[in-house]
Design goal:
- The protein has 354 residues and is of the alpha/beta class.
- It folds into two domains: 230 residues, Aspartate Aminotransferase, domain 2, CATH 3.40.640; 109 residues, Aspartate Aminotransferase, domain 1 (Alpha-Beta Complex).
- The chain contains twelve helices and ten strands.
- It has a seven-stranded mixed sheet, sandwiched between helices. It has a three-stranded antiparallel sheet with strand order 8-10-9.
- β4, α6 and β5 form a beta-alpha-beta unit.
- The longest helix is centred in the C-terminal third of the chain and has 32 residues.
- The two termini are 22 Å apart.
- The relative contact order is 0.18.
- About 5% of the residues have low confidence.
């Protein structure tokens, strides 16, 4: 049987929650959206949040809340999702593409400083939109010290900062770790199909402290058409509650894959923090098409990690590292519903890659 590269973690609990919302005929924005915000607040400890229909709406409102001006620039990673540029264009902002390093797929202070040094003198930077690519954690504290407002996108990195252990002492320590990592003025948690948590579509936009939360409150009365429907919120609530178990299962699978990857000539990205194992990427020393063809013969689907990124779309000519990674980085199946026998098949594939 063919093993797909991705499968959403939807079990009976998620289905029951959605069915209950449908039976109660409460599918538009309402009480469940408010419960979702409260559930998320218990984990993320933010001051204020909005539950919205898409990450694009969240990014748009975050930039508006920063009072950006037409013609200003926003620094974004060349490996960010393509919709970033669409949102910036809608706001008449200039995307300032920033490269990454070969061993880490997120922006760093060094790569940002290089981009700033090379920009036109008359181009004013108003913000940094910091995508946590493939679930890895950039050093947001160091980046925030540059003095520009930072919008963090944790859609793929939710769970990367807290411990998988259960003791209350360790849980407290994990919260301290979390607070140190979320240094943005605003944060986006996408809830799309391939995000770490899913509601089938949507996003949360939140502010960690009271001052920034007060700014977001100015958007509390946005029309329902911008807000997350209850039928989606019902699914996301269960995803939050099941996240610890799902992350633990990802860790178990990643451990098997890692041992196999050590026996190949292909490279892994460096982990600077505890990783949620959102994905299992390898930077190939051989051709991507050869690996895709080889995997297909084994009835295992792999895919280009950055095909849907800005670099993958060919929009970032001055970002050579990102362009190289967009041609050579492959993702292997890793998700909580993957059975042990299937994980072993993928592990053997990794071990024998051409």
């Amino acid at each position: 049987m063919k093993i797909e590269v991705y499968s959403p973690t939807i079990r009976r609990k998620e289905m029951d929650a959605v069915l209950t919302a449908m039976v109660e005929e409460k599918i538009g924005p309402g009480e469940r959206s408010r419960l979702l915000i409260q559930t998320a607040k218990e984990q993320l400890r933010f001051d204020y949040a909005l539950a919205l229909r898409s990450p694009a709406v969240a990014l748009y409102l975050a930039l508006k809340a920063l009072n950006v001006q037409s013609g200003q620039a926003v620094i974004i990673s060349a490996l960010s999702p393509r919709y970033y540029v669409n949102v910036l264009n809608d706001l008449q902002l200039t995307p300032l593409f920033c490269d990454v390093s070969f061993d880490f797929p997120c922006l760093s202070r060094d790569t940002i400083e290089k981009t700033i040094a090379e920009k036109p003198n008359d181009l004013k930077i108003c913000a940094i939109a910091l995508h946590h690519t493939l679930g890895f954690l950039p050093d947001t504290t160091a980046i925030a010290e540059l003095g520009y407002p930072v919008i963090e996108d944790i859609s793929q990195s939710y769970g990367s900062w807290f411990s998988s252990k259960d003791s209350s002492h360790e849980a407290d320590a994990s919260k301290e770790k979390q607070d140190a990592k979320l240094s943005g003025v605003f944060c986006i948690l996408g809830l799309e199909e391939r995000d770490m948590l899913t509601s089938g579509g949507g996003a949360m936009l939140f502010a960690m402290n009271r001052r920034d939360g007060a700014v977001l409150r100015n958007y509390a009365a946005i029309p329902d058409e911008y807000c997350l429907p209850d039928i989606n919120a019902a699914l996301a609530i269960v995803q939050f509650r099941e996240a610890h178990k799902n992350i633990q299962r990802r860790s178990e699978i990643a451990g098997v894959y890692t041992q196999s990857s050590l026996r190949t000539r292909h490279k892994r990205f460096i982990h600077h923090a505890e990783y949620n194992n959102y994905s299992f990427p390898l930077v190939l020393e051989s051709g991507l098409k050869d690996v895709e063809s080889y995997a297909r013969k084994k009835e295992i689907i792999v895919e280009n990690a950055f095909e849907k990124s800005l670099a993958g779309a060919g929009l970032c000519e001055r970002c050579p590292v990102s362009n190289s990674l967009a041609l050579r980085t492959v993702l292997f199946p890793i998700y909580p519903r993957l059975r042990s026998q299937e994980a072993e098949r993928v592990s053997k594939l990794i071990m024998t890659l051409p």
